[in-house]
Structures are given as structure tokens and as C-alpha cells.
Amino acid sequence: MVYGYIRVSSDKQTVENQRFEIRKFCKKEDLKINGWIEETISGTKAYNRRQLGILLHRVKKDDIIICTEISRLGRSLFMVMEILNICMTKNCRVWTIKDNYRLGDDIQSKVLAFAFGLSAEIERDLISMRTREALARKRSEGVVLGRPTGGRNQQRYYKLYEKDSLLRQLLLTGMSFRKAAEILKVNRQTVSHYYNTFVRNRCLYCDDAL
């Protein structure tokens, strides 16, 4: 399979120039594009949060990914290295047009893949080390780390507890959970859970029971 990958950073940019370059290149190399991947997203966005991540999961041995230049894959050197290393591990070739990269099943590519993988591993270790150092510094300053007591549910319920009176008034008018959630700027399910957990039982013997 041959895939054409196109990425632009904003709606103001056009994909047509990249498409034209890839088609021209494929005609010259006697290749046929089996699928196009186009996306409008910043190259700084993690590849696994882009359509590119889906493509990297899909590709198989001897597949080819063609893009106009290496920067289309990502803006960070280490991100590009990681992407290329994934492709090399899966024996997928990556060809770029403007900078003439050819990553395939040859000794140069294998050496490059090793360098890419090693660089990515070093970067991850450095990030981990910096994180541990930052956490140690915060502990020494007396900062309490970790999730606040009560967990995520109690944190989101606390937001509604502060607006309990308004929530009760909205629901007493017959307003739906969905509409109340929009006004209170929370999820509809949060309103429903809060109502069933706190409001309904508390108002069971009230004159204005909901």
C-alpha cells in the first residue's frame, strides 16, 4: 500500500500544493496512491492524537508513506525521530520529496533507525529525570502532591455543591438535566448523579421535594 500524507497547520493553508507534488512524484516513480491522509493540525500536536497516529498503527511491511517534506510529520526533531523509528520497526518505508529522504530496508536506514530509537529513549529518560527532580523540589517545599482527598467525583460534585441553590431552583421549574447542565457549565451526567446522590434524598421530606 502507498499512502500520501498531507498536513497543513491552519485552514488558511491549502492541501492542493502538497497533493500536486505527491501526485507528480508518484507519476515519475510509477507509483499509485492507495490512500490519502489529510489533516489540518499543528505539527507540534502529538502524532498519536492525529490521523497520522491511525496511519502508523495501520501500516504494514513494505507499505510506503509519501509526504512532501519531513516537517509534515512533526515540528519536533524527537517527534520525527520517534515516528520514523516506528516505521522502521514495522518495515514501512517513508519517502519525502523536497528533502529526498528514503527510509527503507537498507543498512543506512537501519543505522538511522537505531539512532532515532536511542535518541528518543534518551529524551524520555531526561524528561523523567526532570520530572522526578521537580517533584522532589516541591516535596522539599512542603507541597502536598497527588490527587486531592475525595477523588475526581467529589471534586466535580463540589462545583455543583457551590451552586446547589441555583440547581434546585432550575430543576423545580421543570428544566431538564441537560439544560441545567448547560447553564451550570457541567456535564449532564454530573447533574444527574448529583441530583440522585444529594438533592433527591435530602429533599425527600421537604415541601418542595423534587
Structure, explained:
By secondary structure, this protein is an alpha/beta fold. It is built from eight helices and five strands. Strands 2-1-3-4-5 form a five-stranded mixed sheet, with helices on both faces. Strand 4 and strand 5 form a beta hairpin. Residues 202-210 have low confidence and may be disordered.
Task: Spell out the blueprint of helices and strands.
Layout: E1 2-8, H1 16-29, E2 35-40, H2 51-58, E3 64-67, H3 77-89, E4 93-96, E5 102-103, H4 107-140, H5 151-161, H6 164-172, H7 177-184, H8 188-202
Parallel strand pairs: 1-2, 1-3, 3-4
Antiparallel strand pairs: 4-5
Main traits of this protein?
210 residues; alpha/beta; five-stranded mixed β-sheet; 5 strands; disordered C terminus
Query: Which residue ranges are poorly predicted, with pLDDT under 50 across at least 5 consecutive positions?
Result: 202-210
Residue-averaged pLDDT, rounded?
78
Helix content: 40-55%
Tally of contiguous helical segments: 8
Question: What is the multimeric organization of the chains shown?
Answer: single chain
**Range of strand content:** 5-15%
Q: Count of DSSP E strands?
A: 5
Strand order of the largest sheet: 2-1-3-4-5
Profile the largest sheet: 5 strands, mixed
Radius of gyration: 26 Å
Shape call: flat
**Element-level helix/strand string:** EHEHEHEEHHHHH
Q: How far apart, in Å, are the first and last alpha carbons? A: 60 Å
Please state the structural category: alpha/beta
